[in-house]
Specification:
The protein is about 40% helix and about 15% strand. It is α+β, with helices and mostly antiparallel strands and about 475 residues long. The protein has three domains: about 140 residues, no CATH class; about 60 residues, no CATH class; about 230 residues, no CATH class. The structure holds zinc ion.
Length: about 475
Amino acid sequence: MQQIERNQLSSDDLAAYTADQIRKQTSTGPTFNPNHDNNLNLNKNGSSEDLESPAESDEENGNVKRKFPKFKARDDDFVIKFEVGQIFTNVDLFRNVVRNYALQNKKDLVFDKNDTKRIVIKCTEKCPFYLRASKYVQNNYFQIVTFKDEHTCYLSNRNRQARPSFLAKKFVHLLRHTPHMKLKALAEEARHRWSVRLSRYQVSRARVKAIAMIEGATLEQYKHLRSYGEELRRSDPGTIVKIKTMVDAGVVVFERIYVCLAACKRAFATTCRPLIGLDGCFLKGVYGGQLLTAVGKDGNNQMYHIAYAVVEAETKDSWEWFVDLLLADLDSIQSKRWCFISDQQKGLVPTLAAMDENVDHRFCVKHLYGNWRKKYPGQEMKGALWSAARANTMSHWEKTMDKLKELNEEAWNDMKQIPIKQWSRAGYSTYPKCDLQVNNMCEAFNRAILEYRDKPIINMLEGSSILPTGL
Ligand SMILES: [Zn+2]
């Protein structure tokens, strides 16, 4: 070991080496293996490769452990920094980090040596950048033994690490959200983020691989849907999970899933006012579909999540299926007269109208006005409609309607067509003890689950159940 010519070491390497040697003098030292490439010697760049093994030293003999920084995998936006002595748990992790580093720093790095014992990374021909890592003797760990972080190269739009298989992983989050993203847009994204110019063929291959990854993961989750339902039932007895499938050409195809957690329905049916907001929102994943939700209000006037379902689309049939299951669930806890508030969704209005007199249906006035104002715009019209909606007594309501008639008879006639019990406080049933006129609980819920709407089905269902209820 003493044969080292220290004047060949760079100052950083020398400092690291000296500190290492001082520690080693107080210990029995690491295992020396004369046949192994990693034993102390100097490479052509003049740095020591003997940084390894103290992590394995024996504490009983009074050895002092030298702690080398261990690389921890983080998300894509994490800025990678290399240093001499840094440890990577295996060679694949190190290769992956180097590729990310090349893209992050917009440098055309290349693997000069690349095997399971050592990896050498260089930049373009005359650039002094040099990175070398070697394998530990005892385990699979890889450690950086030399790092010269200096570039004299020019910025170029070539990057040999921007391979389709690697880019595919980078495109996954983009394509999960917008599966129909154009090749041109993906190429532009690569140019903007990593300054690489990709051919149409390269982008196309990366896109195909990324879609396969997303679909593979998404498809896989449908296979576990029944086990997921079983687990929900086991962990919260009384939970209802209904999965509807159909058989298409001999293959069982997922159609719908309905989930109503026992704890949620029990607390809602016994303690909350019987007013339920209904809404549907699009799912942005590969297979699309819609999420139907039932949201109430708790004692603090906060949104309270009752049940949710994934269906193929908002139709009369799917709403009927959802509302029937929901009412059966709630009535199984406590039979009541239920009042719904909705945005007059397609299929929902006739579904609720066909129910017995124990079901009321209010229209969200904000949504109602949104459609109405296309025909009758203006602040005056808006004021007239809202005062009619907010009127608390029949006489007040009649007065406000007379005012509306003066302003625009056609608009007045339109509003007369809608039963008063569906849009004005004067006509609301007093049974729910709630004068809520807008479906804001559902809007708040849709906003809260926004980040889960493009996820594979189980992640999405989990996000929908955990986040808003805080269970
Ligand atoms: Zn360079």
